[in-house]
């Protein structure tokens, strides 16, 4: 649309999770937990990605504040990811929160540690304003975490009926939807099962096949 490229000149390839469904099966989760700077006795809401404005973390923090005030939840909020561009306002928002002691930025973690964070989270929230794919939601679904994400860009295409959706600007509704998932066991389990089924559609074999088809199309003058 923006560059005036004809549709028959565009090939779309998917992505796949860095994790297999059984990634944690033979790992000592308790040992891995002990190396992560968080007390896992408290339930938590999880975000994983670069800490930058596009990821809409400020509205996630506002939603968390509202959850604490309105519903008195005992959950914490964990942010996993490196600092990106213009991260200062995000940390200022956290510092100004009445519940800043319950908000934890864990920074960069190894694949193994991130997997444990996904696996043990009550819900994964990815309220990004814009994504080209949205790989973290696929990772979360693969590891059995219910997903809430934005109703924008590619995110509904990737998750379809396996996630709940929110408008990224509406932090009040975001809080309501988060509360629904963490307070309704049946809903949470339904999202976990749908997420696992949806994630099975994405594999590196599929990525390779789609890439081969794209190259073949070019070689044939497509």
Descriptive overview:
The protein is of the alpha/beta class. The chain has helices spanning 29-33, 57-71, 88-95, 111-120, 135-142, 155-159, 171-183, 185-199, 204-219; strands at 44-48, 76-80, 103-107, 123-126, 147-150, 164-166. Strands 3-2-1-4-5-6 form a 6-stranded parallel beta sheet, with helices on both faces. Helix 2 links the parallel strand 1 (44-48) and strand 2. Helix 2 (57-71) runs parallel beside helix 3 (88-95) and helix 2 packs across helix 7. The mean pLDDT is 96.
What's the gist of this structure?
The protein is α/β, with parallel strands linked by helices.
Order of helices and strands: HEHEHEHEHEHEHHH
Helix content percent band: 40-55%
User: Which percent band covers the strand fraction?
Assistant: 5-15%
**Number of separate strands:** 6
Low-confidence stretches: none
> Could you give a short account of the major beta sheet?
6 strands, parallel
SS field, number of helical segments: 9
In angstroms, what is the radius of gyration? 18 Å
Strand order of the largest sheet: 3-2-1-4-5-6
Structural class: alpha/beta
Overall mean pLDDT score? Answer: 96
What distance separates the N and C termini?
Answer: 19 Å
What shape does the CA trace take? globular
